[in-house]
Amino acid sequence: MRITKRTNIAIRLLMFCAVNTGRLVTKAEIAERCNVSGNHLAQVINQLGQLDFLATQRGRKGGMMLARQPEEIRIGEVFRAVEGDTPSSACFADGDQSCPLISACRLKGALDCAKEAFYAHLDRITLDQLVTDNDELIEILRPSRAA
Q: pLDDT tens digits for 116-130?
């Protein structure tokens, strides 16, 4: 399965917040540590806030933090929410009737099953499992690394 840039950024953002619990983190911090453009990041922050994965606070002393505990956030749930109903293949996208095999093709069913197996596996993984005891990740995502 191919993961969109938006989902990749969402997971990095959530990991950053999980490592930096107990404080509001800023978009600038995340952009720097996670190597993400500010514009893409702003869109993902907005989406994750609307989906109740993040709690955001506007203003000069604003920022964001996880809206739930890391052990309550399932990675499969994040993927489904951010990816939406992305077709498994371009030939199954809405309105695309260019393939003459669509009416008889069994690939769509096979890909749908594979996608569900992918999400089912990710449903067993929590955000907490991605960051706990991951010293290398924690070192990368901490606010002040030794130079």
A: 999 999 999 999 999
pLDDT digits (tens, 9 = 90+) for 76-109: 999 999 988 665 666 666 566 678 888 888 888 8
Rg for the chain, CA atoms, rounded: 18
Q: pTM score, two decimals?
A: 0.85
Helix (H) or strand (E) holding 55: strand 54-57
Distances from the Cα of 137 to the Cα of 12, 16, 145, angstroms = 10, 9, 12
Could you give the domains of the chain? Answer: 5-141 (1.10.10.10)
Give the whole-angstrom CA distance, residue 16 versus residue 30. 7
Cα–Cα dist 76/3, whole Å: 12
Q: Contact at 8 Å (CB) between 141 and 30?
A: no
